[in-house]
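Hi F.,

I've been meaning to write this up properly since the lab meeting, where we talked about keeping a consistent format for the predictions we share between groups. The idea is simple: the sequence comes first, exactly as it goes in, then the structure tokens exactly as they come out, then a line or two of notes. No screenshots and no reformatting. I'm using this chain as the first example so we have something concrete to point to.
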Amino acid sequence: MIEHRGGSPTKSATAPRSVVALVDATSGVERKLVGAWLGDGGIAKEIGTDAPITQLDLDAGAIAGRLVGRRDDPLVVPIRVLWLPPERDGVRRMTFADLAMLTNPRKPHRLAQRKLVRESPDRYVILTGQPALLSELRANNPEAAALHAAGTTEPFARAILRAAVVALERAERSIIGDRYKVPRLVAEEILDSPDFLRKLELIADQIGADPQEVYRRAEKALNELVAAQSRLVSDLFTQAMRPVHASTWKVDTDESGLAALRALNRRYPLVFLPSHRSYVDAFVLGDVLARNDFPPTHVIGGANLRFWPLGPIARRTGTVFIRRSFGDDEIYKAVVGEYFAYLVAKRFNLEWYFEGGRTRTGKLRPPRYGLLNYLAAAVRADRVDDVMLVPVSITYERLNELGAIATEQSGGTKKPEGLTWMARYIRSQQHSAGHVYVRFGAPLSARDRLAAHGDPLTPPRVSIPLHHTDGAAEPIVDTDPETVERERKAVQRLAFEIAVGINRVTPITVNALATLALLGVDERALTLGEVRALLAPVLGYIEKRGLPSGELDALRDEQSLAVVLEQLSLAKVVTVYRGGLEPVYSIESGAHLEAAFYRNSAVHWFVNRAILELSILAAVDSGAPDQLRTGWDEALRLRDLLKFEFFFPDRAEFTAQITAEVLLIDPDWNSRSRRDTLGTDILAKLTASGFVMAHRVLRSFFDAQLVVAERLAARDPGVAVDRKEFLDECVSVGKQMLLQQRLHSPESVSTELFGSALKLAANHGLLTPVAGTSAKDRAEATARRTEFAERLRDIGARIAQAAALDPSNIPGATR
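Output, unedited:
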């Protein structure tokens, strides 16, 4: 028996006088099945009329010749046969066994179709898309209909074809699930858009190029971008990769908010913005979303991963390979912007890593704004009602690719992606790496948040001179500087909000705390009991604040803690010496960058505590009569020095957060009245709290800043700084300073940290070359650089004070 499922026609006061069935058939078998269903009164039973039915192929030529010119108003119904895979373990899906049989269960060949009709009638469905009257199709496509009225039928025919395909795709998803939502005819629809064609004409005028050449380049760029998704490849790729990762990690997902997110997705497109720590982020997140029946995301990836065979496979599973730099290619920019706007307008979900690349330090990198700008442009132009931005934290207990990341940080060359790289990657996943935590932050309305951050949300006004004879006239685009600046700041603030959303749900893992403990003891090995005693007050602090965490109970008893440290030893991050009275643990020689990576995944939770500690020490050391004011001033200065490393709120909220940290140490602090002893009083409480964070959390960042500051102070301020050459110099000199024990850990010798420190120096006006040859100007510039370095040396000395107060650095205190 043939089953029918699909959309129901819109009820109207007047039944349609005629029906046009647009049949999407690929074989005689499918045509026969559809014909039999029509002959059995399939459509007539649905719409309650005996109106005559005309069958047309779902083809632009047939539609142009036999439908668009009709003067009556037929009901247009798209129809196709939907073939289903066999049911396996309660789920209809494809397997590699199907591939071995040289057939695709979703698109069986003609002989397989005949067999299914005879033997497996449950494997096919006659599917109808949502019907529409021809007059409704004209109303929905006014520009194409206008061209038809002027004698050009092809645009309207193609518009009807696309509408039919979309209707059938929607009907299919009601049967096979949202995870199989894939776009069709994307390039064709974009290239048929009158607005986009006008934009290309505008670009042709701007760059002085032939409009046909601009169109050709746009078509090429679009075909390069568009993800040609395949349900077959998606199913098989997921089945191939899932066992690889299942043997490596146990995925821990907080699914409490996913139902609400799915409901939101029925109204708005979702843009998933995950933290980026590993190449496997997309696989992990994609699997979580597929298991929860989310539509597939279009993952924006770098063109460096477009090698065979990964590239062709990835494109067919939804990856959009985009150039890392567009330069001044206005055509490519326009194509990317239009493709983004198209995807969100059609409510396809997107995913990209707004940091621009994998973190080399373990913490979030500063955001890149390019793709967010395209998204904001689509919202401003009202191409979409709204887009919901979803911060996602993906946190690994252990990563098998950390060795390569550490090598890149210390000045090594990144190995290019390719077949050899892919083989190494798959081989590296054979080792168990514990949990991977996937957490979803609260979704952000792009429209609401942009408006809240001052974006005027108005599209640019463009005046295109359609008629000019001298060739000198150019299109005029409203680029009011004030508006552009407001838009720029709004996008930056939105990116900041996304980063905060990611950090807010990032859990503290057992390895983050274990490495936090061992990195802060000045190259000393600790017994199991010492590690446990060191972590006990930190665990209490985490519990008091209610911070998100992994399975931290494993750190509370020595047996479980020993397992954690042994796993880190197997990963060559921790070394264990067993030749004495009891095992002792320390960071593996040469593995400080890897250890710091794990620690830094949670370091943002302890930054305010570390700033508070240094501010208290500054207040006490100053001898000032108002220790409270001195402490606050120091906290704000430290916040300014760290603003390129961490995501701080505005001053008012930052002040409230620091106050909350003070109250955790001294609940009676607000009742103390003597401003000259407040620093001394809180220092005593801090020492009694059982742990100090400043040297564990901030030392590596300030040490890296010191290297940059000293190298700047030693340079001629009249010569511009070449970034790559300067960073190479910092790595070389940093290694020397490490050998001289002027730096406290190899984790400070990091191109990533040096790069952030260089941005800080630029923000302080220390990179601008001195113009002219004035000795006074050069001396003043050098003095400012020297003062910057001296300030960092003072902070380093204060961090050493904090380290001396930490019980873990006092012999016998943590036993």
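Notes:
The radius of gyration is 32 Å.
The chain has five domains: 3-176, 211-450+488-505, 510-601, 605-689, 697-809.

If this format works for you, I'll send the rest the same way.

G.
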